[in-house]
Amino acid sequence: MAKQDKETYDSYEKDVYDNPPSGPMGVHRGARSAASRAVPYVIVIIVALLAGLLFWGVYSGEINNLKMPWSSQESSTASSAEKAKSAKSGKSGKSGKSKSESRSDSASGNEADASNTDSSTGSQQSEQNEQNAEQNAEQTDNATAQQVVNTGTEVRVVNATNITGYAQSKVDVLTQAGYTSVSASNPTGNVPSQTVVWYQNETDKATAENVAQTLGISNVQQSNGLVTPIVVVLLD
């Protein structure tokens, strides 16, 4: 056999792969811009600043004052709920307050039950005080109603002056004013130092004041032991 020739690079037929284009090819990358190379450093700086700000907020407590966009909505909702609750409580009055106390008492146990009992006792006491006030007012009205001018009350006019017929002239004045039981007399015993209208009972006070006004007398006093309910003592 003939000896086979050794195959070399030149033994093969030339093709396109034997003449590659010039320049980088395949997995080689082109040069990046300065901005793209700076982006990682900017991100690291921003993250560091945020971390430092977070640490400062936690350490100083200022983070509690930080308001997030969603927190304002929650606060507004809570405020609206509180306003609605306050309006409802104001309209319901004492009844609404009693219901709220009852619910609170149920949740807090025996201590709340005791508080509810005290509240009920206070309410009953308040109602009792109101009733007493109404009764006192009625009694006052009755007493005021009793203190009316009674022209049928017996009135005695005493002449302690030296003017003859002076008492009778005052009797005539009272009679013309509508009094039906008026008499004139002379003094018996001690007389006061000035002209006065005496009345015996509190129920005669209004009548005595009317008699004094009719006769032009300003001195009106209550006195015990009178013979008649009202006595007019005339002095010079």
Q: Widest sheet: strand order?
A: 2-1-5-3-4
Tally of DSSP β-strands: 5
Sketch the topology as an H/E string, one letter per element. Answer: HHHEHEEHEE
SS-derived structural category? alpha/beta
| Percentage of residues assigned to helices | 40-55%
Termini distance? 191 Å
> What is the CA-based Rg, rounded?
57 Å
Poorly predicted regions are none
Describe the protein's architecture and organization.
The mean pLDDT is 76. A five-stranded mixed sheet has the order 2-1-5-3-4, with helices on one face. It has helices at residues 34-60, 69-108, 110-146, 166-176, 205-215; strands at 155-159, 182-185, 196-199, 220-222, 230-234. Helix 4 links the parallel strand 1 (155-159) and strand 2 (182-185). By secondary structure, it is an alpha/beta fold. The protein has five helices and five strands.
